[in-house]
Amino acid sequence: MDVCGEGFKLMLSSWQERIEQALAARLPSPGEVPERLHAAMRYSVLGGGKRVRPVLLFATARTLGLSEGEVEAAACAVELIHAYSLVHDDLPAMDNDDLRRGKPTCHRAFDEATAVLVGDALQPLAFELLSRDPALPSDSAVRLRLIELLAHASGSFGMAGGQAIDLAAKGRRLSVSEVEAMHERKTGALIRASVLMAAACVPQLPQSAHASLESYAGAVGLAFQIKDDVLDATGDVATLGKAVGADVRQARPTYAVLSGVGAARERMQRLHEQAHEALAPFGAAADPLRGVSAWLLARRN
Questions:
Q1: Is 80 exceeded by the pLDDT of residue 2?
Q2: What global pTM score does this model have?
Q3: How far apart are the first and last CA of the chain?
């Protein structure tokens, strides 16, 4: 496979379409009580986004010889957690953003209380899928491992902890290593979980292969967040679908702010190369994951 060519682009598009349909099927109908909450949940999850985490999960599954159907529910679960985090991050008490994916944020389209409840409802729905969805492996040990990986990535040692560190750091000058450690939690933890959740569906996977996937996920997760930092500094609202320049306005320490855009781009390129190196033991089977890394490096939103 040409990891940057039409073959990968078609695969990426099919994955994005698949996860959109899978999420729509698993979210509550807006006609079910409470209607407003269910409508807000669907508004916040559907109809936009790159679906980076499900794509990584599907690409890892392909690398390991699994079909998308075997991991679809896990891909939905990780995207529901990501969606809940965006709804809460956008709230006035957090980042106070008005736009997300080119449309009003949940608390603007509905109200703050509903937005809080949307996050409160999406999080348990993710874990319900991991425990009950019939498409996942029936082995209870596999399901428990999936729940453990997602819970750890979402909590105080992962995404929520990274957000807390980010909020506490506003107006302070952190070192580059401190910013990278924050990114590893805030963004990297859920990206790492996406890769490792697919790996967990192959219980017999050798430890060496698991370690290679973990190294890949770490490099891609950090590169992804640094790219976001660069786009916030150099992008525009029309392309990104959200406000730009927020990092500088809010005195938020980011890689691009601390090191400059040029150094940030160099760091991203090195991380992309590290990700490719980590996949060497898999040979051509890992081309889907190589394609994801190249796609994330080149993205404009």
A1: no
A2: 0.92
A3: 25
Q: Which residues contact 274 (CB under 8 A, 6 or more apart)?
A: 215, 219
Domains identified in the chain and CATH numbers: 6-298 (1.10.600.10)
Assigned token pair, 243 = 């406000």
Token pair listed for 200? 């967990």
Q: Which two tokens stand for residue 129?
A: 């899928």
CA 182 to CA 176: how far, in whole Å? 10
The whole-angstrom separation of Cα 137 and Cα 133 is 9
**pLDDT tens-digit map of 23-52:** 999 999 999 999 999 999 999 999 888 999
Q: Which two tokens stand for residue 263?
A: 């150094």
